[in-house]
Amino acid sequence: MISRATAKGFAVLCCCLAMAACTGNGGRAARQTVDSLDLKAYSFRYRDVDSLESLSKEALRLSGGFDEFALLNLAYAAYQRMDYQRVDSLLATLEDRSNDQVILLCVDVTRMKTAQRTNDGLSYYSARRSALGRMKRIEEERGDLSERDERLYLYATSEFNIILSTYYFYQENDSLAREAIEAVRRMNLSQRDLPQWIYYNYMVGSGGLTKDSDPKRVALSEFDHLVITYSLSRRLQYIYFEANALQSLSLLYEHNRDLIEQNRHDDYKMLEAL
Predict the structure, then answer these.
(1) Which value, to the nearest 10 degrees, does the dihedral of the CA atoms of residues 51, 229, 157, 139 take?
(2) How far is CA 138 from CA 43, 100, 133, 157, 239, in A?
(3) What's this model's pTM, rounded to 2 decimal places?
(4) Close Cβ partners of 168 (under 8 Å, ≥ 6 residues apart)
(5) Mean pLDDT across the chain
(6) How far apart are CA 139 and CA 132, in angstroms?
(7) Separate counts of helices (H) and strands (E) for the chain
(8) CA-CA distances (angstroms) from residue 108 to 89, 105, 157?
(9) Furthest-apart CA pair in the chain: how many Å?
(10) How far is the C-alpha of 40 from the C-alpha of 263, rounded, in Å?
(11) Where are the alpha helices (DSSP H) in the chain?
(12) Are 98 and 104 spatial neighbours (Cβ–Cβ below 8 Å)?
């Protein structure tokens, strides 16, 4: 017969196991909520910086104060607000506390983006060198990435090449600028990361990155990419790209009115009606 003490001990053990199970389930549910908030915040990067910040702060609160994706999103919001001191502070926190190579690659890419905007060549080259090293290491273990890290890796590598293309474009090295943007095209972003796909189309449409010796074909190709950018941005409320695409379309149309009217009649009528 089981003694009273043994029975009591068994009951306590069962209670502890039940509590641990509840805690585990609650922890998983909380993690899923945080992940959902992070993804939703990411979708607001080119739409609404206030919503991006609000969702990221909520994710940070629910995570207990440290959530890598939320901090990346907040760094991007600070970048959009041109608060570069806060960008640096948030990225430094990630560098100090994270050992996730994909997260740290995103940090490198954000540092490249910030350095490019602030004309800090030394920081740009340092971050670029670090990013190249991380991408090489990550590719060696690409199959082991979690779903979240695979998504972030796609973002980081596409952003890296867009930044690189911009750098070469302003260096008047058109060949390398096109090579970098071509790497983005091969990522099939339209099915995997719509905001980055819109960004890619905007860059090709506005950056003179079409490889063709015929100026008419170049103009029509740029027009097509800008129409994709504008149409998707307008439908999905990516205000940042909607406004920039419309401005670029106006400039392109100003210099190619007859060509566009004759070869892109339906798109021309759509834009004329705006």
Answers:
(1) 110
(2) 24, 10, 9, 11, 33
(3) 0.85
(4) 174, 176, 177, 180
(5) 89
(6) 11
(7) 13, 0
(8) 14, 5, 11
(9) 98
(10) 39
(11) 4-42, 49-62, 68-80, 84-97, 101-118, 121-140, 147-170, 174-185, 194-206, 215-236, 239-255, 257-263, 265-272
(12) yes
Find the length of the chain. Answer: 274
Which residues make Cβ contacts (< 8 Å) with residue 78, sequence separation at least 6?
Answer: 84, 86, 87, 90
Q: What is the pLDDT of residues 208-255, one digit of tens each?
A: 788 888 999 999 999 999 999 999 999 999 999 999 999 999 999 999
* pLDDT digit string, tens, across residues 85-136: 999 999 999 999 999 999 999 999 999 999 999 999 999 999 999 999 999 9
Please state the φ and ψ torsions of residue 37, each to the nearest 5 degrees. Answer: -65, -40
Task: Please report where in the chains the tokens 């908030």 appear, as a residue.
Answer: 37
Nearest to 97 by CA among 127, 64, 145, 130: 64
The owner of tokens 């750098």 is 167
Amino acid at 160: F
* Residue type present at position 187: M
The identity of residue 55, as a single letter, is: L
Instruction: Write the single-letter amino acid at 265.
Output: H
* Contact indicator for 206, 228 with CB cutoff of 8 Å: no
Q: Is 185 exposed, middle or buried (0-12, 13-18, 19+ CB in 10 A)?
A: middle
Over the stretch 7-36, which tens digit does the pLDDT of each residue have? Answer: 444 444 344 433 333 344 457 788 899 999
| Both structure tokens of 218 | 């170049």
